[in-house]
Write a structure and sequence with these properties.
With about 190 residues, the protein is of the alpha+beta class. It contains nine helices and eight strands. The strands form two sheets. Strands 1-8-3-6 form a four-stranded antiparallel beta sheet. A hairpin with a 5-residue loop joins strand 4 (about 55-65) and strand 5. Helix 2 (about 20-30) packs antiparallel against helix 4 and helix 8 crosses helix 9. The longest helix is centred in the last third of the chain and has 27 residues, at about 120-145. It is globular. The model has no long low-confidence stretch (mean pLDDT about 95).
Length: about 190
């Protein structure tokens, strides 16, 4: 299980993890299983754990006053899971995070994260992840305010084709901010081409 995390980190840093660093990771990250449809985080709770998704898939969403679910993130193998603001500030989260499949995570508490994220390799990794998150957020905001539904779908297809295999159509539609009927029409048009 730890192999996935170690390989992930090694593929993104300037040098391989040393044995003592691997020991620190293994000491602080705890295996955690979440069954399909089970919550990892519920709205109003403090996000006490950040997770590295080893196997499975999850979605992060909010629910509006009409009871409509709005998916803000989809997660698959090799992705970090959590509400970063709630975790950092120990504040109640406005989000729910639920497993879409039986999921295995390696979780890290805030107190354990101090030792992990003081490692130079993890500082390097965190800087990269923060940068990538910032770029992705900008693209997502721009897409939401300036692109057509079809352009947003094509961007998703180009950047995250595995999402279309792992998540049902209604979740993809929610993630794109469109109805499932609109998504069906877009997919039908792309099949005809």
């Amino acid at each position: 299980m730890y192999t996935a995390l170690i390989e992930y980190i090694n593929s993104r840093i300037s040098r391989p993890l040393a044995d003592n660093e691997i020991s620190i990771l293994k000491k602080n990250f705890v295996p955690h299983k979440v069954k399909k449809r089970e919550f990892f985080l519920q709205e109003g709770d403090v996000n006490k754990y950040m997770g590295f998704l080893v196997k499975g898939s999850m979605r992060k969403y909010s629910v509006d006053s009409k009871g409509i679910e709005h998916i803000v993130n989809l997660y698959i193998d090799g992705w970090w899971v959590g509400d970063r603001e709630s975790f950092a500030k120990l504040s109640p989260s406005p989000f729910n995070i639920v497993a879409c499949e039986h999921t295995t995570l390696l979780t890290l508490t805030k107190s354990d994260s101090v030792e992990v994220f003081s490692l130079p390799v993890m500082i390097e990794l965190t800087r990269q992840l923060d940068e990538n998150h910032s770029f992705a957020s900008q693209r997502r905001i721009n897409a939401a305010i300036s692109m057509t539904a079809e352009e947003r779908y094509n961007m998703l297809l180009s950047n995250y084709p595995e999402f279309l295999q792992r998540f049902p159509q209604h979740m993809i539609a929610s993630y794109l901010g469109i109805t499932k009927e609109t998504l069906s029409r877009i997919r039908a048009r792309s099949v005809k081409r």
